[in-house]
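Q: Could you fold this chain for me?
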Amino acid sequence: MSGLFKLRVWVAAAALSASCLPAISAAHAQAEPVEPPVVGVVAARKKPITQTEQFIGRIEAQQRVDVVARVTAFIEKRFFVEGADVAEGHLLYLLEKGPFEAAVAAQQAQIAQVEAQLGNARLTTQRARILLGGPAGQQSTYDAALANERALEAQLQAAQAQLDTAQINLRYTEIRAPIAGQIGRTTLTIGNVVGPGSGVLTTIVSQDPMYVTFPVPVQEAINLRARYTPIGGFGAVVIRAQLPDGRFYGHTGKLNFINNTIATNTDTILLRGVLPNPPIFEQAQSPVTVRELLDGEFVTVFLEGAEPVDVVAIPRAAVLADQQGSYVYVIGPGNRAEQRRIQLGQSSTTLAAVTSGLKVGEQVIAEGLQRVRAGEAVSPEPADTTLEMIMQSSARQGMAGAADPAGPASPGGAGAGAPARAPAVSASPPAEPTGAAGPNAGGSPGSRR
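A: Sure. Below is the predicted structure, expressed as structure tokens.
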């Protein structure tokens, strides 16, 4: 029995020892110190930022004329190249002149006849007036002669008016360009009969400069007015246009008009600017002039402040968001991460302008955000120098700057589909863009912006 008792004691001791090993191991593991996560920080600083708003607009010619025939006649000649530029007064079509020249000659003959009758009537009136002084004179004879003279004077005026009409119709046989611009295709060719009911023969649109019109939400228009009116109004705003292929147009423009009525169906107001539209190439061999902007073309319009403003700026990768809004993590006392609620102003994909919530010089965590929790200690280190270079490039290009530091491409230098700068966004919260994540960014309590 003593041997069996010893065996039971040994088994019980072994089981107790095995059950205590995990607890001892866990206690030992908890006793090991945990290193704070390494994060990259960037100091919030003042940077000159060009404030920018983005809208969708359309290019419009300043003048557009549909050329029509004023008289009915055959087309004898055409004097323009379709698609070429024409000067004001340039002869476009020559219509058959014969019938109109004959009408002018007939009216000239009618005038000559009436003038002869009028001369005789004036002599008759003069004789009747002389006879009034003698016994043979009668007042009624004089009155009749005077009435006939005045009737012939009226006929002469009517004949002169008919001659003027005939000469006007004769001039209408030469259809000339009422404005300077680019002419379109002709709808009727030589030999066709044209008239006022024939419709449009061709269309001329002016080319340089061009209008760009774009609707702006009323709330945004009020913000623009409050921002730019005190510093110069139209003169404080620069217009840039992004073409359909993504390239930025090489010339800037100015605002020159705000509509006096709000579109009730869209709650927007129409703004208009002026952009130069010179020829792209010197074209000595071709009659057709090629320009960058075309009437009716859709473009993306950027309204930029003429002068940059200083704002507190941080990398866009440092901004997080949740249902309560935007926030960042800053380094607090004891190298502990503090959650800081902020208000964003004009922001791009690489740079965020902070209107409230941050002070210049505060250290903002921009890298390693997935390891950061509010109130926990971190090990701050300077962020990657690439991030600082991107911030500097974005600040130089303004809020319309793209991640590509190369800046906007010239009209002839960039390939199609290679935008020079990324679109800017509105300062209102619903329009804030989704920011690019930092090099070590990942999941966090809030979603990335």
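A (continued): The first strand starts at residue 38 and ends at 43.
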